Protein 1
Amino acid sequence: MTATPPLPYPNADAPSQDLIAACVHCGFCLPTCPTYAVLGVEMDSPRGRIRLMKTVWEHRLGADAPGLEDHISKCLDCRACETACPSGVEYGKLVEGARSQIVVARPRSPIERLIRAAAFEWLLPHRRALGTFATLSIAAKRLGMGSLLRATRLGVARRMADLLDLLPAHSTATRSATISARGTRRARVAMLEGCVMGSVFGETNAATARVLARNGVEVIATVDQTCCGALHAHAGERELARDLARRNIAAFEQVTADAVIVNAAGCGAAMKEYGWLLKDDPAWSARASAFAAKVKDATEFLGDLGMSERPGTLHARVTWDDPCHLLHGQKIRDQPRALLSAIPGLEVVPLAEADWCCGSAGTYNVTQPDLARSILERKVANIVRTGADTVVTANPGCLMQIQSGLRQAGHKVRVVHLMDLLDEAYRTG
Amino acid sequence: MRGLVALLGREKVLGAREDLLLYEYDGAVDTATPDAVVLPESTADVAALARFCHEHRVPIVPRGAGTGLSGGAIPVEGGVVVSFARMARILEIDVPNLRAVVQPGLINLHLSTAVAPHGLYFVPDPSSQKACTLGGNVAENSGGPHTLAYGVTTNHVTGIEIVLSDGTVLRLGGKAVEDEGYDLVGAFVGSEGTLGLVTEITVKLTPLPEDKRTVMAAFPTMDEASETVSAIIAAGIVPSAIEMMDQLATQAVEASVHAGYPLDAGGILLLEVDGPRDGLDDARARIEKICRDHLASEVRVASGALERERLWAGRKGAFAAMGRLSPDYYVQDGVIPRTRLPDILRLVKDAGVRHRLRVANVFHAGDGNLHPLILFDSRLGPDELERAKAAGLEILTACVEAGGSITGEHGVGMEKNCYMPLQFQPSDLAAMRRLKDAFDPDGLMNPGKIFPTPSRCREFAFASTAR
């Protein structure tokens, strides 16, 4: 028996060689990559990162190389490169694969292990813990903890202050409840509550359900659902992501629904990829694919279904900012724009680089604060240039990031989820 | 390495192994790892770097976006790769004089986007224009679909600032079109970084055409499509672009952009006429009739800007979509007299069959500028690339024998330098060499490009006669 060389990556979640082979290194992705725009080096471009993954397969670089971790970590995972790629390279799957290997290949420091455990195992999957944490954090923020932390001039404290900045001034938590359709029932859906959406933006969940109900959609309660696991997958914690995926699949299998509605673009993109996440688990892969096929973003579902009731008039100059995981992750572009245009009275102005990331990108503004700030400043400048008084988007990370960026730059521009704006329009109408 | 950091600062120099590994490729098939990468931010940085390299006898290889298709940015003899990614600003837009002054790292399309509000654009539109840089366009004298009517990069550059290998900064030409003396700007455009480093470019801007008509025509085979091209030119119509695509290429393109190219057609033409609105519909109708006379199964006129953009996105993304068909491709760039299209295309097909490789064709038919994309899979072993190169050489030999050339717009680079003697006499190459020596006597500027090198070209019998 001939000895086969050891695999260069630690396990089967490694970035797939077949997916890598689709890249013909043409460079079309470079001008769409926000980190390449800031740093201007090949290592921080999608093509370069794919090449790094390939050099590991070729045994030219170790999976534990510090440079590999550095450049793969700097990726926003915004997937703008996927939209730009004529060869259809599935970059999101590659970068998440690479991260899962880096986490295993290079031992984490005790502090990082603690922070990861706190975030990924204790907080995100547990609604009550996350809700309490959010309430306490917001209270701390209102008490001026931010300036206090900054005054210490410690790096860690400054980062915590930046985090507090992101939080909205108040949070609402709601649990899913059944809401019957108004008029003739056109569809019956279940809804993901989400971890952050459920504990900080609960009001948006309620608004989403009301808007759907207005349009003849019955929203049914689903118990036992949990965090979607998107942040875990982005951070390379694939086992934890798989656990959460299995719990969600089982939970939503309990109800009969035409679709599973998600109003957080990041969650929707991740849930549509449950089939890929569980592809190597024979007991779950078919169930995962079947579940994934039912997942719809709220804007996608309502846009495709068509509005049956005309919303009321709102007066504002608004602009739409594409959440990356809606546009690039789920290829949803037209439906949210159509929904926004359906609100009478709004002046909708185009946003330059609406398809660019705002720098939120899951936990990016925590892990790469400097890059996140540069990318956010670019977004804020584009928003200010539109003269809009309201920015509309559809993802909690983007909402918090853009709001914080505008506030820090001293601009009084409202940032609102499309479902909240639609709900508002229906209430006035 | 340490000297470079001391000279330019840590932020502008890369030297880690994982960094250098990522500057060993471009859009083509050849690779070589640099000893260092420098990211200058000004002409002064570039001049300082050139002086340093001159003093230490280190080769310098310029790089734009790394989209090139002849290995131009590959440091085949080692040395320093100079990435112009951080010199990407528009320095001036002079609307009344129809000029712009830009840095070499500026992306081609970004210039046209920036001047569009003034009703202007930069004409040369390589298919990679969303990503490629103007410095790279100048180096390779790049073309694009619309060169048929409007010329290539050299026809749209009036001035350059260059840094020579000893660090001397020269300004050649300017905003005015100069006639006196030698055309040194012309010598630099297309010199592939072998004469010096371009640090600033003055380009012509052109008023956007009043209107356009874009026609897609599908034919049973490439023969009818080829004959249609000649018939259109013979009829005295001068389209701004005539592009051709075969069935295999169409498959990749359709999977990528869903432009509506028919998948069952043997050959497809994409034609465009532009200019004053009067007369466009007449030209379009005549083109449509010629297509139908040549058995076109479908002739579609783009109904508006959106459909036109989709049709062009398909064509321009064609090379980049090859990943849907094959992990690797080797593209040739030979030029032939237009009338020889049918028989040379058959020869291309035969070369693929002989070497057991699929070949897709997407090219500038109006110019007779072929782009056979020879598909291979490097994972199956080095033999794959060797067979692809053998097929490529057969195709280029046929192009030269047909009265054409080995490259239309991609440049010679390190990919075709051994093939130069196919086209040029030893005395021709010696004359070119003297021009090179006048600017770069020590041979430090992008060595191993354009001219055949003894070490890499030994196996080509015809190459040895060149020296």
Note: Chain A has a mean pLDDT of 91.
Protein 2
Amino acid sequence: MADTEKLVTFTVNDRKLAAPAGTLLIEACKTANVEVPSFCYYPNLSLQAACRMCLVEIEKMPKLQTACTVLVAEGMVVQTESEPVRKARKSALEFILTNHPLDCPVCDAGGECELQDMTFRYGAAESRFVEIKQHRDEQQWSPVVYFDRPRCILCYRCVRVCGEGMDVWALGVGNRGVSSVIIPNKQDHLECEECGMCIDICPVGALTSGAYRYKTRPWEMKHVANVCTFCGDGCKTTLGIRNDEIVRGDNRDKSGINGDFLCIKGRYGFDFTQHKDRLRQPLVRVDGVLKPVSWAFALQTVARRFQETQAAGRPIGVLGSTRTVNEENYQLQKFARRVLQTNHIDHHRTADFPALYDALAGKHSPVPLAASEDLKTAKAVFLIGSDPTNEHPLLAWNLRWGYRLNKTRLYLLNSQPIKLRRQAFRAAIVPAGSEGQAIRFLNGGGAVKATLSQTAGPDDKRWPQTPASRPEATQETLGDFRERLQKESDVIIVFGAELRGDDIHELVKFGSSLPGTTRYIALADNANSHGAADMGLYPDLLPGYTPVADVAARQRFESLWGGAIPSAPGMDAGDILGTAGKGELGALYVVGSNPFRHHPVDPAALRTTFVVVQDLFLTETAKQADVVLPALSAYEKQGTLTNTCGEVQLQKGGALFEGAKTDLEILHTLAGLLGHKWAAPDADEIFTEIRGNVKGYNVSLVQVLAGSSALSMSVNGPVPHQHALTQIQPNRDSLFTAGSLGRYSTALNAILEKRLRAEKV
Amino acid sequence: MSIFSPQLNTRFDELLKRYPVPRSAMVPMLLYAQDELGYLTPEAIREIAARLDESELAVHEVIGYYSMLRTKPAGRFHVQVCTNISCLLRGGEEIFEHCKQRLGVNNHGVTPDGLFSLEEVECIGACSWAPAVQVNYDFHENLTVAKLDQVLDKYRTGGVQ
């Protein structure tokens, strides 16, 4: 909107100011540190001018004007603190407060309520309203959303963020005038994505969270920024921690890569940390039964059995985690290679990062990865596969943002008419499994069956967009899709697990043929999937995608780690589990992963395999273990995480959980018991080692420590590898599921149950 | 399958041609649907929303805004008594009170036989002939309590409409 080329000058409170033409007066004032209070104005949502709090005096204008709807103009003279303005604010507040219950002492918002703050600041503490206030009982709209009607000041922020921001349109305004009321889409309840954005954006306590309401006061918690432990997008969730326990999650300071956004998992999913089934004591199998033991006994048992397995010359397989921090993953592969002397190490792969980096080798420097925020301002985005609305809620939010505010042209290639088609400029629906073929077609080869629909683009005059799907206007061919796309420059290509191996090479070939700088985002499913790949949780790749067979590179790590590591690539996860299934695996060390859930291994075959599982819960895999070590969750430890785009962020922890240990501490203790003198488990020290030795991780420390993100630039050179593409197994999570971990979230389960009940009815 | 009559559906088709944006046709569609069905049933709301490519919530928002649109059945004869300033000065309130007693219902009530419903309304634009009452789409003006009784009796015996 703002034209940065042209500055206009104007005066506010006798101060000369300048702002780009097209800037809203309220924003220009904010930039100049002049406070203009408002309730209904919210940056990047449509304008409402409902609350009348932002009234200011503008010379030559007959009445006070709402600063949220006036654009700055050359020579404009504005007063924001004059007597008429002061009076108007006070009156606006008095008016807003007429039917407000002033139940601040029991209201969740008390202490962080915009209405409370403004009343303190701008007055109207005494009311002239003597009539009886109209009370309405609170309503539960969903397991996580409650509505207290009398507190509502009708700013319509919730309505707008739900519709414009989320493209859900589940909230509306009923009645008229003084009896106006926010209404949910299903008469007395909500049917929506349960993101809780309406609660976060509510300036008062009208919309409250089912997980948090009436539990505590904001000043009784410490607020610790953490990276959400669920999907791969890496949103910042600020955890409210009281007495070492997490009471709520939100994005109160909007400072993360997610800005305003947070989905249900980031906001409510934290409750798995206090699930009753959480492991608090190590377990060791005695006479076929897992029995609680001391940490010392459990760790000594593991060390002894690992030594015996090594001595017997039987293979040890290690499966790492896509949720543990980079430092733990780095140390885990060091532990496997250096201490256990094995390259049989892998993780649950959900994206083919090695193929992407290999394909990008030498194409562009630095490696052209796009950060999540780049999607907000991209001119064009080419999205292949995946369903970001469900699997990558933040990226979907950013894509909608780009469409809504920056006219991003979204090209969509998918086997399903996913919800983002509503923002698509061109959508191509191809048969499932032929996405790679379609990319080959774009490169000029072969034909592909495609049903194409042209959907209305950002120039559509029907703004604000309608909630239901747009009609398909014309039938086109994939050739036209290609023609359109080839005219775009500086495209961001986002692709799901539908593309892997050679398909990614084809994709990069196509991307490289486009004008400008094409940037890439590979979609991986878990909080640290990208990090796990970067840290070398591969049987053939060391940290930074260095082939273990590369002598010089291997020697560099050997000298860093003080000893030899095996040179031959090991078995991948599929082969490790296959070997276990044949009864030929000596030991299996599973850290924060649940491979047996989808790949059950016959317990009889495991009789001669020593299985150690390090996890939060007694998962399908842990149930078959010989030793179970209780681990701390991501919200209880420090370290760094790398999101699916490659953005490195700091995990601050903050919560405490008795009985469990961090994966890092467990690893270091085991290394010590196995005769390796590792330094104390200090995540900062290890991050320094990572920064110095893992390609692409020499990121700005200041940026990471300050709590923002730093984009890693992993490799720029070929990544020789031969990976079985079947090892890439996406979660296909919905908004309310999250692999094995989501099952332990009461909030997520409540939503799933509600939906199942609704389906039955 | 439409729940509306073929005639009404034709009318809807015509309406939709008149506006550049489909949702502009919502208010007239709702009014005509209400005339045909007596009130806006959930099925009617669902069908109109689908025809306009809008959510049901958006339709509910509009219905909530306009007091002449209703989601509950009214009587066969919907008696709307104006009590705004002109009618008030000329006895509108007595007319309204009398209606309540005669029909035995309160504001927004429906008689048990479903014949009458009563509603106190804002100005119906008949100030020159106040006090005035609107029954369905018919106006009855310069009323007195006695004249009102005659009007209601006519409806009751089927003399009108």
Note: Confidence is low (pLDDT under 50) at residues 453-476 of chain A.
Protein 3
Amino acid sequence: MLKKTPLHGAHIDLGAKTGEFAGYDMPLYYTEGVIKEHEGVRSSAGVFDVSHMGQVIVEGPGVALFWESLTPSSFQAKKNGRAQYTVLTNERGGIIDDLIVTRMTEDKFFAVINAGRKDVDIAWIKKNLPAHLRFIYLEDRALIALQGPKAETVMKDVLKADLSALPYMHMIETHTPAGADIFISRVGYTGEDGFEISVPDHCAVDLWSALLAHPAVKPVGLAARDSLRLEMGYALYGHDIDETTSPVEADIAWVMGKEASGYPGQARIRTDLQNGPARRRVGVKLLEKGVAREGAEMRDESDRKIGILTSGGFSPSLKESIGQGYVEAGMSAPGTKIFVNVRGRNIAAEIQKMPFIPAKTKSMKRPEAA
Amino acid sequence: MALKYTNDHECIHVEGDVAWVGITKYAQEALGDLVYVELPEIGKKAEKGKSVAVVESVKTAAEVYSPVDGEVIAANDAMPGDLELISKPVTQGGWIAKIRMSNPAQLSGLMDEGDYQSFLKSLD
């Protein structure tokens, strides 16, 4: 029996085509189709139900140190309200999950974890949790993402929240006009400006409906969520990153804090950093017609296998096929000509820098006082 | 001759010993936004039930299965550049491949319009 988010009925009412994702029956797309949804987010605003993701709190004195013991990122110096993209690493330096961790107050951190990794992450956090800290799984909260260039305007119109001064990767706690307590984070998975709103389950349908009632907003399913993130080169857990990939191989070494030490798998990750990894996650663009998807082999000009595509599809913005995957480090330079083998046919392709299109997220700095 | 259908949602028009193969409206709607069609090479041997072309949508890649044995004698070269064609009737530009049948008796195993409509209802 598939699980349902509090918005499941709303998706059905909107005519969503649903499918299984991480044990949930989730909307894949609505009536207009994937490309229209994708374009709507790039040009206006789209609303996504991401309530399947896990929301947790860890709190207690010195909790910043606890996060530094589980991730290669720095948290002690983070200001209240600051969010950080990071990874939970295992003893082999692989990635247990990627997540966004936000300092709500000095001793209280909020984290959003992948739906398919909730059980693993929660067990891992609890296993490592010192006795003086408290772990809370916020099972009774939904998560709604609003993404697109008009997101800030929509938030102002619908929630009466002026978020113009909220920088990227920052959160505020506030209330809806109806009085629901919400956390608004200026984060996202699309490369557009936008927000993720954590809302109590029983207020989720009202918030979803209010956002959708705005003329700039349309509902967006998981299919367009995937094509949007693919254009940005964001990794999808279980596909582009997993327990075997180090953050250096995955090309997300930037999550590492300068002073980070003592986290699981540190030795392997430092070795990867110093010596360079054997393989590296890269962007790939097809130079000929066709679509290459996850699992397709990448080959060099002598038809030797150099790697595997871990994600791939059609980019509605570029009208070209793009993907990402791991190749031997020697083949990872942008501009390197390769082939992607699709059903026995070698399609000419090129290693590309990611993102494939420029991100439009806001600055992480607070605006200067006038 | 009236159109024939497979339970994989191919649609077939027959002229003499040549089968024109396309996909049904139901298949197109299930696939959603199309992005590419991979055509067969002329002269390729077609086998009943085996892939003869691939239709790629944003979501997935779908094989188009040959409804008969034979040989591919034409592929719709205009289609990859104009994916709207696939929504046209098979006889009006919506065909993907034309197959010269080696065993036209295989046609009798296909559904006619009425059978196919009943089959679609059974899928709901």
Note: The domain at 4-116 of chain B is CATH 2.40.50.100 (OB fold (Dihydrolipoamide Acetyltransferase, E2P)).
Protein 4
Amino acid sequence: MEQPPPSSTGVAARLQQVTKQYQLGKTTVHALRGIDLTIAIGSYTVICGPSGSGKSTALQLLGCLDMPTSGTLEIAGQDVIALSDAARTTFRAQHLGFVFQNFNLLPVLTALENVEYPLQLTVRDPAERRERARAMLTAVGLGDLLHRRPAELSGGQRQRVAVARAMVKRPRLVLADEPTANLDRRTGAELIALMRAMQREHQTTFILSSHDPQMIEDADERILIEDGRVVESTRRQAPLAPAQGVS
Amino acid sequence: MNIVALASRNVLRNARRSALTVVALVVGTLAILVFGGYVNDNVQGLQTITVRQHGHLQLVRKDYLDFGRGDVGRFSIRDYETLLATLRSDPVLAPMLAVATPVLNVEGTAGNFSAGASSSFSGKGVIPSEYLSLLAWDGFGVRIPPGRSALKAELPDGGIIGFRMAQLLALCGPLGLKDCKTLPPRRVASAQEESLPEDIAALGLAEQPTAPEGDAKAPATIELLAASPGGLPNVVRMSVLQAERQVIRDIDAIYVAMPLSLAQRLVFGPDEHAVSAIVIQLKRTDLMEAARARVSELVKGSGDLEVLTFFQVSPVYEQIVASYTSVFTFIAVLMGFIALFSIANAINMAVGERIGEIGTLRSLGFQRGTIRGIFVLEGALLGLFGTLIGAGVSILVQVGLHAGRFTWTPPGRSSPIPLRVDVLGNPTLILATVVGLSLVACLSALWPANRAARMEVTEALRHA
């Protein structure tokens, strides 16, 4: 299916004729079969589709965590396929934030340290790192739980820490792989509202994969992937108004 | 929060496993340091005893070690007094000297013919006061009591024999020795056997001042018989001042020490004065090479003399040290392997448990080198904790052993010695063990750390 033209604000990510094949024993698995995607800067995009459709693979490619078998992949204006492994890692540190389904916090670090730790890759001043981490945790509503370790936090609180960790570096792109899948409905809704609010406040491009109807409904752009192909792409006509605050 | 703090917390995260790994390191460090300290103490003790007996250097005729005892005349030094004066007055050598003294080594047969007993002996003639100084050397401060000597300059015919030699010569009673076995009486005894053979008696009496008649407390005497440089037998009568137990049992049975003048009379007769060696004892062993070079230079024009070290004079010293060293090396290597496998196992398990975290860190932008560094650092921390605790425990063992005043009798010795380990006296060994085992820990962590660093991000994230 043809992808609509990018928004006037510019392109955050572009995939052209991207394929991804895995070797599973003697079987070749075609995870992506030549997809074209263009994600606008500042958009809130949800990739949806049934399990095994290839949405997580697409998200991994967009997050520079994996490379396509063929095709071109451009993130924030950078041809990431041309980068070395080390340069791609640096690119992730500088421009990309991640929110994982299982939160993926480091259990030995407190909430504050979890948010602060990756900042050492991009911010030299320890005091600035600490202040930014503190401010971001406060922004996601965890200002009074800074020194709790992940094991002492609820699932929703952990995912808020993960959102703060993704946002604290002021990334060009945040990728969230089914971020509400391990949360109950109410907590999931709160997290969706939080991410949406953060995205609006910081004008950050968010690309999420999800089955969550509420998240899909709330998206600026919905991309449906089935069997490794983009079968539908829908863009919201009028952008939502900027959020007034974050809950 | 830096990488060291993160690694430290990860080490403490699985406290039981880390504790077991640290215990393995503690045991390894303890084994190396305590045995190393024991070896150190023994080698210092052995060197102290060897240097007391042989000095650090001996100035002898060339080939003396190989042929000297068989041909005393040919391999003796006649102008020894001039040489001694040269050595003692040399401005370079003199500050290094503790003692420089002549010695005449002699072997032959000792007999207590009135008791019908005789035995071979290996003796030496020394200057009593200087011999006493030799026996007091304590260059390492190991506090082995100074050797005693009853030799006296004013008793030119008085000598000392070993305790077992006293037994062999049936002198337990005359010398009033305790715990001394008495020689059983012979089954067949004739007047002829029990008396000193006339020819030997004549030889001895010819050169011997006669004991005052009617002296009820006349000291025990023995006859010493040795071959003169011409091959003829010489005999002197020696008053036995004391029987002294020698540290090595076999030497105890043949030991005779006498004033140099008596030994010279025994070997050369009344008119000739020569010695086997000039024994040079230095203030410290580390001066030996410099002193050896200087002595060689000083005696360059004095004929075919050579300077021997105590290693050469007493090769058993090096054999014992080599034996200790090989056992120590074996233990150190074994402990190194224990450390290697303990750390490798612990870090390998940690990598296996934290694959998801590795994926997370990589996705956040941490390079492969950082992942490798975290796990190597965890290995290094375990190694460092273990070796430092091990070093502390080793020092406690040293203190405990010294406080407990334990003793043991090494093979070949006739008396027990204190069981000591000298850990603190060898800071180089402590440092080398701590650094060495910590490096082994880093190296052993490297393999699992590399495995962690090579993981693909997407594959690692599947384990999160």
Note: Confidence is low (pLDDT under 50) at residues 1-9, 240-247 of chain A.
